[in-house]
Amino acid sequence: MLLFALGFLLVILQPSAGQFPRVCANVQSLRSKECCPPWDGDGSPCGELSNRGSCQNILLSQAPLGPQFPFSGVDDREDWPSVFYNRTCRCEGNFMGFNCGECKFGFSGLNCTERQVKIRRNIFQLTTSEKNKFLAYLNLAKNIPSQDYVIATGTYTQMNNGSNPMFRDINVYDLFVWMHYYASRDTLLGGSSVWRDIDFAHEAPGFLPWHRAFLLMWERQIQRITGDENFTIPYWDWRDAEDCEVCNDEYMGGRHPTNPNLLSPASIFSSWQVICTRSEEYNSQQALCSAASEGPIRRNPGNNDKTRTPRLPSSADVEFCLSLTQYESGSMDKMANYSFRNTLEGFADPQTAISNPAQSGLHNALHIYMNGSMSQVQGSANDPIFVIHHAFVDSIFERWLRRHRPMLEVYPAANAPIGHNRENYMVPFIPLYRNGEFFKPSRELGYDYEYLQEPALQSFQDFLTPYLQQARQIWAWLVGAAVFGGIVTAVLTGLIRACQKKKGGTSSEIQPLLIESEDYNNITYQSNF
Fold first, then answer.
1. I want to staple 104 with a disulfide (CB 3.0 to 4.6 A). Which of 96, 138, 311, 440 is the partner?
2. pTM higher than 0.70
3. Which domain holds residue 277?
4. What totals of helices (H) and strands (E) does the chain contain, helices first?
5. For the chain, how many structural domains are there in total?
6. Exposure string (b/e) for 452-465, b if CB count within 10 Å is 16 or more?
7. Which portions of the chain are predicted below pLDDT 70?
């Protein structure tokens, strides 16, 4: 009954964000290169009659790119999404969505005017009920089809330039697995040739903003399909962990008793099937991942190559990374030195910030340590640990933003690898988001982290609250007492002065010695609080 109700909610709730909107995955939209669906609220494209937005030409960045991708016109993701659409909805104010039918991150209400900040919490601080609900939401997403989005199973050329649409349905969880694959897949050059040095979500400045947007969309999609508007992604704080603390059946799945590469049958995740893990097969066939099932989740934590990842990240690694003042540097790819992004991503040594792709630190270390589905970039989101891992990585990004308070201009505007300049649209998201839109504090996007909420200040406020409440109740008495005290003080002062006048002056010989004149300038005053 609960599953039926949740499925019904999915149908009636407004869309969130994802890949190809179902309403635009047809011959007419592809040939006209226009994706401006009507908003259900007034039936007009992009909700134009309600001043929500309008159908506009896409404005592409003209900033030069880095040298890592030496081709042009061979990949559907170039100048995203212009190969498929060059007109989409441009939403006004706080409206968002492929039809301007929802609110921007951090806003709610009928007119998207109400600000909100939701808190992401440590997964080990959740109650048993909250933790079980999170696991159930994951499983629901894996078993309910996306009503709003489909995925492409062929390139635009293979679709005969839009005359033969090639799309298919997909469940909500796998939609995000597929998007992660699509952003990081190799470029198909024809025949058996591919170009591997390309990634629209990793190894460059957009790594952190891209995954920040990805998690926000994933979080909102779970809110939609469950009707739980207060849901937030929990995070796994893996600093100084000696092993995979969430790898048990109470949380993200324990080890299989007879096959250490698989999950325990007692875990709900043991029945999950992975997709988009066979990149070499797709490359040889010059095909895209079709989201066909490719076997169970594989995970064997700790039995990884120790020469590449000898241990899990430490608190010291994180603190050193946070001390780096440059967000990006040099070539702005995995060879960048003294780059906060490259060090957090894990291509630079977490103790020196010098690039060393042969080693995997911080973010990358967790992926390699899991020794399975998580360890292959394109299919890594198949393992649900991906979500709670990246939530913590995002919290480190947030700490850096709060410590260094960078201007938007700190994010590179030009010469970054393809797709990673500040004004580039993120692949493969529709509605469209630019990289620079997510280079800002999380509270401006409607969320915060439990451990970043300045607990000392909060505790002080909690301490004062009861006294302030009592003061409000007796404020009239306090004012009266203050006035009475002032009157008494004035009367006493007057009496003292009158007495002094009667006595006359006191000679300097009998004045008490307060301080020797020669010592006066040597006094040091200190304030201690």
1. 96
2. yes
3. 22-303+371-452
4. 12, 14
5. 1
6. eeeeeeeeeeeeee
7. 1-18, 455-529
